[in-house]
Amino acid sequence: MSLPAEGEPRLLRSLRAAAAAAAHAASLGLPAGVAALARPGSSLFSWHPLLMALAFSLLLTQALLVFSPEASPLRSLSRKAKVRAHWALQVLALLCALLGLALVAYHKELQGKGHFHTWHGRAGLLAVLYAAGQSLGGLLLLYPKLARGWPPGKLRLYHATAGLVGYLLGCASLVLGMCSLWFTAAVSGAAWYLAVLCPLLSSLVVMNQVSNAYLYRKRSQH
């Protein structure tokens, strides 16, 4: 069981900081690698993998790591400023995901291919729809008057837990995309495993962050 942050040994805090720093690097490295692979602009489809990697690897990960006590680039700012940054990054991630989904759907339409027949396609569609719903739910925290009496603490807990589920779903869609014929035809061996490691590492870091910030605290109150 994890300890609260103030009671953690220095070594454990250092390991958390190192893992969070690695998640930052992974969230940026995967879209960079996909951009080099897809060569955006070379075809209509080439924008799809880049936009989805930007949405679910870079922007969404950074939106969550904003609240990391060990590796947030906004540690010195107020919680209100972090919430605003989180919301802005979340909106950008959703816009990239919606555009990436629209482009691949249009590409398949031009090619006369069916839509969402693969696990990757279904997981990606579900992840985008979930992200849209999660963003709407976040309005209740951004504008508390909309919550109509719901306790802010419970709303934050529900939002964080639901957001974690959505993030893991987005990471799963990325991993499934790495199993596609397009990706495996260009990436194999150690490079493929390194690519898969990026969303897996980020997922573990975000799960640990949410668990320590909300779920552990919830258990400790009982």
Radius of gyration: 18 Å
Mean pLDDT: 88
Q: How many helices in DSSP terms?
A: 7
SS-derived structural category: mainly alpha
Strands, count: 0
Unreliable residue runs: 1-5
- Please outline the major beta sheet: none
> What gap, in angstroms, lies between the N and C termini?
15 Å
What sequence of helices (H) and strands (E) makes up the elements? HHHHHHH
Helix content: over 70%
Report on the structure:
- The chain contains 7 helices and no strands.
- With 222 residues, it is an all-alpha fold.
- Helix 5 (152-177) runs antiparallel to helix 7.
- Mean pLDDT is 88; it is low at 1-5.
- Helices cover 76% and strands 0% of the residues.
Question: Quick summary of this structure?
Answer:
The chain has helices at 10-38, 47-65, 79-111, 119-142, 152-177, 181-186, 189-220.
Question: What does the secondary structure layout of this molecule look like, with pairings?
Answer:
Elements (H helix, E strand, L loop, with lengths): L9 H29 L8 H19 L13 H33 L7 H24 L9 H26 L3 H6 L2 H32 L2
Helix pairs in contact: 1-2, 1-7, 2-3, 2-5, 2-7, 3-4, 4-5, 5-7
